[in-house]
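In this section we walk through a basic example: taking a raw amino acid sequence and producing a predicted 3D structure, encoded as discrete structure tokens. The instruction is simple. Fold the sequence below.
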Amino acid sequence: MQKIFLFFGFFIFLLFGARAANAATLYFSPSSGNFTVGNVFTVNVLVNTENADINNAEATVNFPSGLLEIISISKSGSIFSLWVEEPAFSNSAGTLSLNGGLPTPGFKGASGKVIGAVFRVKKAGSASLVFSSAAVRANDGYGTDVLRARTQAQFNLISEEKPLPLPPTTIEVPEAPNIKSSTHPDSNKWYSNNDPVFKWTLPSNVSEVRLVLAKKPSSIPQVSYIPPISEKALTDLENGIWYLNGQFRTSAGLGPVASFRFQIDTEAPRSFEVTRVDIDDPTNPQPELLFESSDSTSGIDHYEMKIGEGDWFTISPDLAGKPYKLPLQAPGAREITVKAFDRAGNTTTTTTTTTTIESIKPPVIESAPAKIEKGAPVDIEGSAPLRVKVVLEVLRGGGKFAAEISSASQIVGKFEGVADDNGKWEMKITGLPSGEFWARAYSLDERGAVSVFSEPVYFTVSSPLIKNVLRFLIRGFDIVLNFLVNKWLFIVAGVLIWSFIYVLIKNVFPFIGRELRKIAYICRTYGLDKKVGKRSKKLQIELKMVQNDIKKELELLEKIRKHRGFHSSEEKYIKKKLEKYLGLLKSLK
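The resulting token sequence is shown next.
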């Protein structure tokens, strides 16, 4: 008997216990309703677990794509935090799919939200939402499908309701005038013109126009114009905000009032002064100025400033009334002009007395070579205030340091250095071409203040080729004279050599060229004359002429030495050689 009871108890458990486990239901909320074409509504997919613990649900929902379309889907408020596949929809196929879950202990309840979808009604008709496939799995470690039922939703979609047209009225009330102004078109702007002109379109059925000029937009038009007018010009109005109000009259009576706002300001801003506030630091490269104006009608719109002969630039009115720092300025004196503009374009101008920015202490160039060969560095040294940056400019040009030489177009390079703790600086300049140059320097401190230029220094860069050619020519001249004195048989060859040398040195040293031409002539005369007596006499005459010319050249070189000194060793060398040649010519007697 005990075994029979156990058998029936186990049978009842299998029958009723298993049924209680498969108890979940999927359904829609709302499941019915009336919705108009063009409107949108939200449908939520819900689950009722009926006391079972679940951890997963998946489903595919079908909807009529010709009647409905999904605008968006939302997981907000869903019982699921994990998604095997992200919810997706297809309006062309008319499907919505989902597959979500959550960790242990899962969910148990009667209205757990799975997902929400926003639908838009496309067309009138009857639309059904159905689960074409679905599963709800228990949180039992086996993924048992406990879905018992899946219900559908049914919606009634109706056409858009259109309001019935109003019956036509037999009374035509005029509209408000559309007032415009060619002189004051923008109601939010200020104008300096106090003679405004207004126009409006006049309908054919208007019998009277009423206007009023007032300070309030609510003023009732009282001035009547019969026959009606379509424009109005006003003159010499006071400053301030005005309103021109107007209305039309027809056979149906007066229409609504239109109000046109306009603003007038003919007075310039208050006069003001511009003063410098950093008078304790005259070397400040950014002087601080104080200025402020006011305008009681339209207010200050902006300021404009001009420094010396520079361009105008705009300054915000918020910067007035407190020290205004100028852009970086070089040393010197200049006028500052400030204009105050009100919102109507009226201006007041103030010009300062001369504002001076004093120079900081300039550097001094203490050492620089007078002449160097091309390729060698130019070593320039000097002094400046401690730890101040020194900028050295190298300019092309010779002779006196004139304004055209100091122009920016002549600058071939800029070089920077810093004065050390002893106030000394040094710069080595390389890469300069052959020619004549000037060097000058200025100081630059951490504020951006600059000094005036130092005294310029002059130097030359020469090519080694020219020097070698000069030495070659002088040696050749020495050899020819020796031939002339001791080697009469080589005179003809000397004449040919010196004819070639003559062409080379004609434009290098003219005074040497003249002497060589005379010597060449003597050689030709000496070598070609067959009569020894006549040759000897002519040679003596020519030698005398050469001696006299060399003496004149030596006198000229001596004057140059006394006047400016010799700038190069080549000049000293030429003077020495000419003295030697003069002695040799005297010995020929």
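Looking at the output, two observations stand out. The longest strand covers residues 125-138. DSSP finds six helices and 37 strands in the chain. In the next section we compare this with other chains.
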